[in-house]
């Protein structure tokens, strides 16, 4: 059974930082492209970032480029998202997703349960 379990969310002030983690099981993590997706209240899902399985190359949505960094530890089947310079508009439920690119936003069965990030003073 594929399982993705996110953690690390919370309440942070604007300009602050958080590091999200996602522990994967039930599939070959090291061979899988992995992504982060977020969904703000009342809005559709938004692709945030993807990291490739082999090269480790990463891509980012324009809204987070330069502030967020995706990484992975294949030995521990874990995906990370380092979020710096957080803004109120980053407030959302953040999901770890198996797959690459914007297409993952249509595949909810490939997501975890999510972790809430709230940016507010």
Structural class label? mainly beta
Main beta sheet: 6 strands, mixed
Low-pLDDT segments: none
What is the percent of helical residues?
Answer: under 10%
Terminal CA distance: 40 Å
Descriptive report:
This protein is mainly β. Helices cover 0% and strands 45% of the residues. It contains no helices and ten strands. The strands form two sheets. It has a six-stranded mixed β-sheet, with no helix packed on it. It has a four-stranded antiparallel β-sheet with strand order 1-3-8-7, with no helix packed on it. A hairpin with a 4-residue loop joins strand 7 and strand 8. The chain starts with a strand and ends with a strand. The relative contact order is 0.32.
Topology of helices and strands:
Blueprint: E1 3-7, E2 10-12, E3 18-25, E4 34-39, E5 46-51, E6 58-60, E7 68-73, E8 78-83, E9 92-98, E10 115-119
Parallel strand pairs: 2-10
Antiparallel strand pairs: 1-3, 3-8, 4-5, 4-9, 5-6, 7-8, 9-10
Write a concise keyword list for the protein shown above.
single chain; 121 residues; mainly beta; six-stranded mixed sheet; four-stranded antiparallel sheet; 0% helix; 45% strand
């Amino acid at each position: 059974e594929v399982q993705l379990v996110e953690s690390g969310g919370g309440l942070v002030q604007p300009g602050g930082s958080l590091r999200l983690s996602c522990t994967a099981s039930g599939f070959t993590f090291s061979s899988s492209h992995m992504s982060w997706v977020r969904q703000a209240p009342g809005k559709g899902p938004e692709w945030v970032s993807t990291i490739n399985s082999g090269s480790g190359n990463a891509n980012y949505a324009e809204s987070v480029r330069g502030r967020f960094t995706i990484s992975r530890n294949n030995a521990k089947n874990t995906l990370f998202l380092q979020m710096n310079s957080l803004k109120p508009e980053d407030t959302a439920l953040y999901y770890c997703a198996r797959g690459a690119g914007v297409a993952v936003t249509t595949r909810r069965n490939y997501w975890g349960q999510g972790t809430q990030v709230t940016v507010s003073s």
